[in-house]
Amino acid sequence: MRPVGPESQETYWVRRALVVGAMLALLIIVLVFLVNLGKSPGQAAPPAASPSPSGGSSPLASPSPSSSPSAPATSAAATPTASASSTSRKSSPSASSAQKQTAKSQPNKAKPKPSAPASAKSTASEPAAPAACMPTNLKAGIKGDGHQVRIGAAVDFRLTLTNRSDQSCLLDLNADNYELKVYSGTDRIWSTDDCTRLVTDRKQTLEPGEAAAWKISWNGKRSRHGKSCQTGPEIPRAGYYYATSQLNGAKPVQYLLILK
Predict the structure, then answer these.
(1) CA–CA separation, 100 vs 105, rounded Å?
(2) DSSP characters for 128-150?
(3) What pLDDT is attached to residue 83?
(4) 164-173, pLDDT tens digit by residue?
(5) In terms of DSSP bridges, do strands 253-259 and 148-149 run parallel, antiparallel, or are they unpaired?
(6) Do the beta carbons of residue 241 and residue 180 sit within 8 Å?
(7) Beta sheet of 178-184, edge-to-edge order
(8) Which of 152, 144, 165, 149 is closest to 245 using CA atoms?
(9) Helices in the chain by DSSP H: which ranges?
(10) Number of neighbours of residue 234 by Cβ within 10 angstroms
(11) What is the pTM (predicted TM-score) of this model?
(12) Residue 163, burial from CB neighbour count under 10 angstroms (0-12, 13-18, 19+)
C-alpha cells in the first residue's frame, strides 16, 4: 500500500492502475469473444405442418380437395404467373443477344467521322482574291539617271506605282491604261503609245504601302504616231523636256530632263 523506491508514490500507483486496466480490458475482450462464439447462426425451424385427417403430421402434405375448395382457383391463378415467368426466362436470351448486338454496334457509332482532306481545308481557308486597285489610291513615281542628258542619248526611267490604301489590291497594268511620254511644252516628242510593246502587262497584288516597280527606256529620239515603234529623222534639240508617267485615273508624275 505504500510503495517504496526511488520514484514518487504517485508514479507507482499510476503504473499499478495501468496494469490493472490492461488486465480488465483483456478480460472483457475474452468474454465478448466467448459470447459471440456461443451465438453461432442456426437453421430456421421448419414450418408447422397442418394436421392430416388421420391424426398424424406431414410437413409436405397438401390439403385435400374437399377441405380446401379454393385450391383449384389458387392453382389456376398461379399457372399464368409460372407461364409468364417461364416466358420471361425463355425470352431473356433474345434480350441478352439484342443487348450484345447493341453493344457491338455502339463502337461503330462512336467512331469519329473522317476528317476532310487537307486540300479541301486549305481551299476553304484561302482568303478571297483582292479587289482591283482603284487608280485614285495609286501613287505614281518616276526617276532617271540624272536631269542633264546629252542630246540623242538614251534615258532609262525607273517607274513605280504605290498602293496608298489600307487594303491589299490587284494592280492590272498594260499598254491600254498606262503611258510614258516625253513633252517639250506642247510638243509631243515621244510616247509608249507609239510602241506598246515597251509596256509589259503586269498583274500584281499590292499590300498597303507596297509598290510595283519596272523600267522603260527612251531612245532619245522622236517617235512616230502609231504603234509601229518607228522613230522620225528629227532629233530633239537642246532645251527642257518633261517625262510624264500616267496611269488612267491616277495623278500623273513628271521628271525634268535638260538636253544639252
Answers:
(1) 9
(2) PPPPBPPGGGEEEEEE-S-SEE-
(3) 45
(4) 999 999 999 9
(5) parallel
(6) no
(7) 148-149, 253-259, 239-247, 178-184, 187-191
(8) 144
(9) 9-38, 71-110, 118-125
(10) 9
(11) 0.51
(12) buried
> Scanning the structure block, which residue is given the C-alpha cell 506605282?
161
Residue 226 · residue 112 · CB < 8 Å: no
In a 10 Å sphere around its CB, with 0-12 CB exposed, 13-18 middle and 19+ buried, how is residue 251 labelled? Answer: exposed
Select from 253, 170, 157, 257 the least CA-distant residue to 213. Answer: 157
φ and ψ at residue 10, rounded to 5 degrees: -60, -40
Nearest to 204 by CA among 259, 130, 127, 98: 130
For 126-167, how does the pLDDT look when each residue is reduced to its tens digit (9 = 90+)?
668 899 999 999 999 999 999 999 999 999 999 999 999 999
Q: Give which of 142, 110, 116, 109 is closest to 211, Cα–Cα.
A: 142
211 backbone dihedrals φ, ψ, rounded to 5°? -125, 145
Q: Which long-range contacts (CB under 8 A, 24 or more apart) does 217-222 make?
A: 217/154, 217/155, 217/156, 217/157, 218/154, 218/155, 218/157, 218/180, 218/182, 218/190, 218/243, 219/154, 219/190, 220/149, 220/151, 220/152, 220/153, 220/154, 220/155, 221/152, 221/190, 222/189, 222/190
Q: Tell me the three cell numbers of residue 198.
A: 515597251
What is the grid cell recorded at 159? 517607274
Q: What is the per-residue DSSP string for 157-200?
A: EEEEEEE-SSS-EEEEE-TTTEEEEEEETTEEEEEGGG-GGGS-
